[in-house]
């Protein structure tokens, strides 16, 4: 009687099934890691955009110490009508918002929106909101409060 014995077909199939399950689980982990990496990259790009816009707002203050209203989408000429010396700062703020929007269109998903809120017109403070499609609601939004 021969003492050597090989694997049966059933044993080989069970081993193949276990190996396949392990490989599928590994692939799922890799896909989840890639999804999180992409979300982190989008958040980092949004943060860079918001910080850049905040620095532009700090660099161009109004001479009267009020908030730059053109960054909210108001025409710069209308924003500086009551205080003409603030016109260059208002134009710079409008240009900064336009540049931030263009940059976000290149580095963030299509449909990204940037808005700036001025809580009080007599205070130079802003709330920058950036939202982009995809991901979970909280992971695809950024809010940055800026005091200049």
Query: Tally the helices: what do you get?
Result: 3
Physical arrangement of strands within the biggest beta sheet: 1-2-3
Largest beta-sheet details: 3 strands, antiparallel
Report the sheet-strand fraction: 5-15%
Describe the model.
There is one protein chain. 51% of the residues lie in helices and 13% in strands. The protein is of the alpha+beta class and 148 residues long. It has a 3-stranded antiparallel β-sheet with strand order 1-2-3, with helices on one face. Strand 1 and strand 2 form a beta hairpin. The N and C termini lie far apart (91 Å).
In brief, what are we looking at here?
The chain is α+β, with helices and mostly antiparallel strands and 148 residues long.
Descriptive terms for the model:
148 residues; alpha+beta; 3-stranded antiparallel beta sheet; 3 helices; 51% helix
Topology overview:
Blueprint: H1 9-59, H2 76-79, H3 87-107, E1 113-117, E2 125-131, E3 141-147
Antiparallel strand pairs: 1-2, 2-3
Helix pairs in contact: 1-3
């Amino acid at each position: 009687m021969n003492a050597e014995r090989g694997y049966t077909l059933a044993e080989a199939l069970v081993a193949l099934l276990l190996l396949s399950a392990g490989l599928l689980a590994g692939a799922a982990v890799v896909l989840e890691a890639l999804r999180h990496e992409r979300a982190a990259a989008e958040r980092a790009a949004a943060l860079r955009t918001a910080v850049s816009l905040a620095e532009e707002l700090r660099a161009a203050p109004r001479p009267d110490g009020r908030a730059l209203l053109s960054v909210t989408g108001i025409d710069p000429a209308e924003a500086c009508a009551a205080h003409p010396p603030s016109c260059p700062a208002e134009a710079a703020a409008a240009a900064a918002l336009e540049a931030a929007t263009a940059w976000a269109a290149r580095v963030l998903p299509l449909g990204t929106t940037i808005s700036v809120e001025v809580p009080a017109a007599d205070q130079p403070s802003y709330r920058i909101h950036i939202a982009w499609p995809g991901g979970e609601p909280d992971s695809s939004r950024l809010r940055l409060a800026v005091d200049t």
